[in-house]
Write a structure and sequence with these properties.
The chain is α/β, with parallel strands linked by helices and 334 residues long. 51% of the residues lie in helices and 12% in strands. The protein has two domains: 176 residues, Rossmann fold, CATH 3.40.50; 135 residues, Orthogonal Bundle (N-(1-d-carboxylethyl)-l-norvaline Dehydrogenase, domain 2). It has 15 helices and eight strands. The protein is globular, with a radius of gyration of 19 Å.
């Protein structure tokens, strides 16, 4: 079976390496031909996943038609805000009866407030779709650190295809049918990771971070339910599992953004210094805030992070307002 990974970012590269390592035929597509030529020569993705050598069997291809020709599975690994443009490049060569889409991007499109499955349908029409998500930093997966994720599809048979072809001794995959919940869990936890980073940057300690994470998963569940997700999903790998790793890991780009905010830096300067590395939670904060407003869902942490990112609110003021909200029962609105 040929598998094509669409995007040469860190996570796309790590998955391509993993799949090559378990004997799959893999092509990695990237949008910049010059950079792919550099990768071919150096056998390293120095911009997005520096360190590990690319697997000798991994093919690199900048031509979309050649990249997807003969592939049975297409892994969608572009950052969420670039997913539509990648799909538009794919559209002339997409064959719904041949190609199974496996999305690994974690975000909500800002302009449309669509999840990635909705963007796929919007651009490609009817398609077979699986979302693969969970606590899975590329920097660890590429070195075969034990990892567990979840594959979700409306048709259980499709999730099982991904389980069968992606699972390995150090990469365990569970299945479920809650596409909405898994997509939202992966997207919303990035906003909470920014909040966790703010706490670290302000040196507020472990109590504060534990409280934020716990109340954060409550918010994720509230908004997820309003949008059609299943309660149980948010207590699983794509919910609390991904929340834990993204809020606590030094690999987390979103936590890094929050940490710099907590130290007093401006968001524009932080993003500029990150270069081409994308922190999905920055855009998702705007999308999630608008979805919460549209559906009348109370999401105080998301709302405060949105204000910090987009209206220059002082993180200290945001913290004060969160801590001095009206007293209530722990499970009100949950």
């Amino acid at each position: 079976m040929k598998i094509t990974v669409l995007s040469d970012g860190g996570w796309g590269t790590a998955l391509a390496q993993h799949l090559c390592g378990i004997g799959r035929e893999v092509t990695l597509w990237g949008p910049f031909p010059d950079y792919l030529e550099t990768m071919k020569k150096t056998r390293e993705n120095v911009k997005f996943l520096p360190g590990p050598r690319l697997h000798p069997a991994l093919k690199l291809e900048s031509d979309m038609a050649a990249a997807v020709n003969g592939a049975a599975i297409l892994v969608l690994a572009s950052p969420s805000q670039y997913m539509r443009s990648t799909l538009e490049k794919l559209w002339p060569f997409f064959r719904p009866e041949q190609h199974l889409l496996v999305n690994v991007a974690k975000g909500i499109e800002v302009e449309t407030l669509q999840r990635m499955s909705q963007v796929c349908v919007d651009v490609l029409g009817s398609c077979r779709y699986v979302v693969l998500s969970g606590p899975s930093h590329a920097e660890e997966v590429v070195y075969q650190a034990p990892t567990a994720v979840v594959a979700a599809a409306a048709d259980p048979a499709l999730a099982e295809i991904v389980q069968n072809h992606f699972m390995a001794d150090r990469f365990r995959i569970y299945t479920c049918s809650d596409v909405i919940g898994v997509e939202l869990g992966g997207a919303l936890k990035n906003v909470m990771a920014i909040a966790a980073g703010v706490i670290d940057g302000m040196k507020l300690g472990d109590n504060a971070k534990a409280a934020m994470m716990t109340r954060g998963i409550a918010e994720m569940g509230r908004l997820g339910r309003a949008l059609g997700g299943n309660d149980r999903t948010f207590s699983g790998l794509s919910g609390i599992g991904d929340l834990i790793v993204t809020c606590t890991s030094g690999h987390s780009r979103n936590r890094h953004v929050g940490e710099e905010l907590g130290r007093g830096r401006a968001v524009a300067d932080i993003i500029r210094d990150m270069g081409m590395v994308v922190a999905e939670g920055v855009k998702t904060a705007a999308s999630a805030h608008q979805l919460a407003v549209d559906h009348g869902v109370e999401t105080p942490i998301i709302s405060q992070i949105y204000e910090v990112l987009y209206h220059d609110k002082d993180p200290r003021q945001a913290l004060e307002e969160l801590m001095n909200r009206k007293a209530r029962s722990e499970f009100d609105l949950d």
